[in-house]
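Field guide to reading this record: the first block holds the primary sequence, the second block holds the structure written as discrete tokens, and the final block holds curator observations. Each block starts with its own label. This record concerns Pyruvate, phosphate dikinase regulatory protein, chloroplastic, catalogued under organism Solanum bulbocastanum.

BLOCK 1 — SEQUENCE
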Amino acid sequence: MICSSSLRLSGSGTGTRNSPSPPASSGNSDESQSQVRRIKASPQLNRWSRARSIRSGRKLDRSAVSATVSTESRDKSGSPVRSELEIELPMSPKGDSRSGSSDDEKEINGGKPIFMVSDGTGWTAEHAVNAALGQFDYCLVDRVCPVNTHLFSGIDDVEKLMEIVKQAAKEGAMVVYTLAEPSMAQFAKQACQHWGVASSDILGPITEAIAGHLGVSPSGLSRWAPERQKSPLSEEYFRRIEAIEFTIKQDDGALPRNLHMADIVLTGVSRSGKTPLSIYLAQKGYKVANVPIVMNIDLPNTLFEVNPEKVFALTINPVVLQSIRRARAKTLGMDGELKTNYCDMDYVKEELEYAGKIFAQNPVWPVIEVTSKAIEETAVIVLRLYHDRKNRCSMPRISKRY
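BLOCK 2 — STRUCTURE
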């Protein structure tokens, strides 16, 4: 879908990355239209627009009104500079989607749309929306209030943003955005108000709060802006690569002599989730080693020689562990003629009891119950305890299970 817009910048500041287009002259309509730039939307948005237009048999009105967005930036000396961005906004669709037309209601009944708009990858917006939707599981699961989410990433100019907000107005969608550049965020707010689109700025309020707390102004640049990509191979990048390489080499009890080099040491019975948790933590830059606990096999002495505050014990429900081991044995071909007690419930319980005795002998090790937790949830607990201990604050109670 294509719509018309014109941009005009006044003042000494720069309110957006777009180059200003000449304002429409006051002459005849043909000459005025020739000076108005045509906006090319994303292919995905075009497909959605065409499909919905065909089904509804309605088109957007191309008439326009102007809206002025005032933005404030700072020059090199740190002085505030105000600028005004005048955007020609098309009028809301005739028979506004919020007026309750039957065609639009049929579209929305398939799931209320939420548009997530970001000037970067969209990770922040997507995870924030998913976290919020988790509060509505009671109706989402039963399809009482179905939701359709659409992510628009890399939106770094006003033209694309205007096209998305315009489509949101047509479909009755909510717009949730994380736009670091103040002028872009301000325009998103103004455009949504103009078209009556429900919206929420995720990044703006927290950025303003932190800026007030620190007493400095934010850069207003996306994390993926070219200006912030001068050194893609940064020290943090190499630190994460080093952590991943170390963690892979230390998997499943390999090279126990290197446990003192690890930031975090995980221990627990087989299939308690040590390896995936190790890799997840390694991707965040932590060197992780994991040591399996197996009956009749002595644990390495280095496990008891390292700083006990960096050792974390994992435990799991025996019924869940048995089902996981059965699936694992099946993939390894151990469920046929080859007899093993690896999946027997009695053996599973005995091995968990054996591990529990080792944990009790080392009360400084936190015992984390992983049965009903995702890897991310377990990682949050591990890192919270790790940093609490490192910073000597909020020390956990001895032998507490998490």
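BLOCK 3 — OBSERVATIONS
The radius of gyration is 28 Å.
Residues 249 and 255 are 7 Å apart (CA to CA).
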